[in-house]
Amino acid sequence: MRVASAVDVGDAELAYTESGTGTPIIWLHGSGPGATGMSNFGGNLPAFQDYRNIVVDLPGWGGSPGPRRTSR
User: Fold this and answer.
1) Which of 55, 52, 70 is nearest to 14 (CA)?
2) Rg of the Cα trace of the chain?
3) Burial 23-60 (b: 16+ CB within 10 A, else e)
4) What SS3 class is residue 38?
5) How confident is the model at residue 72 (pLDDT cuts 50, 70, 90)?
6) CA 4/CA 9 separation, integer angstroms
7) Mean pLDDT, to the nearest integer, of 45-62?
């Protein structure tokens, strides 16, 4: 089962998809048009079903908004 969620990390919110159980693996995607954690790594997850997979969308990509800005 895959579960999509988000976590507040200070100046940003990170969207992520989680699947599997066991030792965690954190998947961090690269950049480029349409880059997201799941577009880069979704096809790999079946081979890692015995691990807890945390597939992150970095700030400004996929489901993660860009960093919050404060006015000065």
Assistant:
1) 55
2) 13
3) eeeebebeeeeeebbbebbbeebeebeeeebbbbbbbe
4) helix
5) low
6) 16
7) 94
**Pairing of β 2-8 and β 24-28:** unpaired
Q: Which residue is listed with tokens 């999509």?
A: 4
The C-alpha angle with vertex 26 and arms to 37 and 51, in degrees rounded to 5, equals 110
Angstrom distance (rounded) from CA 71 to CA 10 = 16
Sign of CA dihedral 16, 63, 58, 11: negative
Q: pLDDT tens, 1-43?
A: 688 899 988 878 899 999 999 999 999 999 888 899 999 999 9
Residue 10 structure tokens: 């200070």
